[in-house]
Amino acid sequence: MALRIKKVEFFLVRIPLRFSVQHALASRTANTSGFVILTADDGTSGIGEFLCREYVTGEKPDDCVRCLRQVAPLLTRSPIESPLNFIRSLWFPTQYETGKYGAMCAVELALLDLWGKQEGKPVAELLRPGVLKTARDPIYSAVYPFASGVKLAALHCFYRAVIQPEWIKVKGKGRLADDLGYVLRIRRAFPYPVQMRLDLNGALAEDNAEEYFSRMLESSHGVRWFEQPFPKDAWELSEKFQLRLGENAVLCADESVCTLGDLARAIQRGAFRAVNIRIAKHGGLLNSLTLYEQALEAGLQVQLGCLVGESSILAYAGLHFAALATRLQHREGCFGKYLIKWDVIEPSLKFSRNGRVPLARLPRAGLVPAFDVNRLRRQAFQSGSLGSTP
Description:
Helix content is 40%, strand content 19%. The protein is globular, with a radius of gyration of 21 Å. The chain has helices at 54-57, 61-76, 83-90, 100-119, 123-127, 131-134, 149-163, 176-188, 206-218, 235-245, 260-269, 279-282, 285-297, 312-324, 373-379; strands at 5-22, 27-40, 45-51, 142-144, 167-171, 195-199, 225-227, 250-253, 274-277, 301-304, 330-331, 380-386. Helix 7 (149-163) links the parallel strand 4 (142-144) and strand 5 (167-171).
């Protein structure tokens, strides 16, 4: 059945966080999130989300809105016979526009949501029939941002008493003494063994990397996974140290790998042994799945990441991805109202004990459960209709 879209709407919403989140590249207390709603001629609607990080993809919300204005007329121009082919075709007229990753992410997720609702199937089932029959509930990681004092004590209490995670990611500063001490304090807070990895957000430099890796690997803390240890464009350093460290450590690309071209470069140079996939960063589920498959084929490990402050729209996209991508090493996301004060979906999608997120939470049809568009309109500080048919 062809999709006939009669209206494209966008909304920009400021979503405050419950506490400030800080790492080596940024500190924030709120996000500007973008949402796209596609409405078909039968009244069915689908929703998608974008969330920008200028230091990752170079995009701002206004860039994404400008790109959406170019894409919207294509959505309403004629019936869409094959949503997947149509999504792939959209990349070509927007391939040189800043804002394409955010815009395409929101449009793709909204289109998949709409398609799934009309077909009466979850998005994961549309993309890979039968996958949900054998997929296991994914386990998500806890994440520690920079914290001390009362904030650190509160994180310890929440994770230890409520969640009891199996996996923990720790944000590092790239300063050996600080990071070793922080890892040790976190490890001592748990009465059981936890698996830990460090996310450095490009904080390491060549003059301190040798000692940093050596001491971390020699310590009893058990940290062997280092996400984005060097700045985004410091390919020579990543290549040099991944070669030197060999099988003893995993350097995982995040900011360095945004596009399929970036991944090809990482593979060719041997600069990383793993890659962090974030659906918002790569422009949607389809690109993320392609990157995942190409990374595995090249022998890289893959983790599913998220952007701080995602709403449940992107969280549900991540959960579909986790069902489809069965060889992930780690998973992050589904913080929901643990972290954000307002969500598009109620109840918010959150991990539970041990970090588990039941696949039973996936909707029977589409990407996400029902959402309240009027509530979204009330929260938006900027909105509009794009490419509407007469």
